[in-house]
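Why this split exists: single-chain examples teach little about how molecules sit against one another. For that reason, every record in the complexes split bundles all components of an assembly together and asks for one structure covering all of them. Below is a record exactly as it appears in the raw files.
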Amino acid sequence: MTVMIDTGNYIAAKAAVMARPAVVPAYPITPQTTLVEGIANYVKTGEFKGEYICVESEHSAMCACIGASAAGVRTFTGTSSHGLLLMHEMLHWAALARLPIVMCNINRVVGPGWNIWTDENDSISQRDTGWIQFYCSSNQEIFDTVIQSFKLAENKKVLLPVMINYNAFILSHTSMPVYIPEQKEIDDFLQKYKPQWKLDVNNPITFGNIILPADYEKIRKDMQNSQENTKKLIPEIAKEWKKKFGRYHGDLIEEYKCDGADHILLAMGAIGSESKVSINNLRKEGLKIGLARVRTFRPFPNEEILKLGKQADLIVIDRNISIGSEGALFSEVKASLYGKLDTKVHGFIAGLGGKDVTYNDIETICKKVVEGKAKDCEWYGFEGGGK
Amino acid sequence: MKKYDVVTTISYPKKGAMGKTGSWRVFRPILDKTKCVKCLRCWIYCPEGTIIRNKDDTVDIDYEYCKGCGICANVCKVKAITMEREAKKK
């Protein structure tokens, strides 16, 4: 094992190459650029022995991933924001065709106004494509999740693509020390991908052809079943990783100081790790508060949240907004409890457009709820002058 | 028959997988064998594989599956194929 001090993107590039994909289609976009640049550098050094395809758009990048994956090989790519949105049609295709593609998405604001900082509206808007969605909170988690995601995606009970999300700049361009296992250890953990079917001129088959209504719903139901299967497999794979490498970032959620808590904060991505500082400070002040960092938005951790809802009131911070409704995590947390519990849930929209959400901000949010001063749903620190 | 662990759309090559597509036809290709020069352009261009190539390179049309697109008539250099409406107008 070695320690590598580098940015989230270069760490993701290292992880992707160590997973030995055969094909990486790449199209650069800020703040993902250094990720594909990092892989290109491994082409130069000879560490990456697969095919690196410079494509002409993100839509083409996902098309190339679909083609390569259908040909039966491990495939990886990365994108961000408008790039992810340009892929949208093909994201659905990849999932419905049951192709275990792994992709990093660096969460960046959607324009206009043009803005390269972080929020999560890009990936949240891809919620219904059938992809598994992870949200990471550290560079180590990015490395570990990339390797684990191939194992999850390629499991015969899953066969769905995985999107690993992490925040623009806060993680993508910030260096942290990351433990890197030996290549042999990775190879032992992640065996060679064996497709159940593939594009083969000697055994011709057609993919994604016409299908009648009665059969189509079977495909959707099977995808749903597979997402349900991941609820068992994500913890199993995380456990195996912990046993082999000693590191663990949680299952569908990561609980932090939830024991005896009467208020639990829920957040995703980097806000999830920043919150740990806030929780420590608030605990010192005597508040019984804990954190549940949501790692997977799909599958959604309904059972885990229901369990937490039995114990404590919930505070949700969303770095996204479903315009015309509310924060996406807030909605889904409430849906998990509906009809089963009367737990109070408070929602906060914070950090849109890459606005900083510091541990001080998170403490202010939590105190407001604990002191009974919070509304059901509000925009934290809104400076627009309105309500 | 359960072949794979997940449900997705995969089909294997089979004659007439979508049924007898000849019933879709509005225009019917009529081949005048006296004009045919065995160039096989119709056989090459037919998108449905419904031009049957015989051993002596003469051709026949498989009307069970021909959808009547007319490409064969278009590519024929000697105008040996003409398209005729299937049902006469009343």
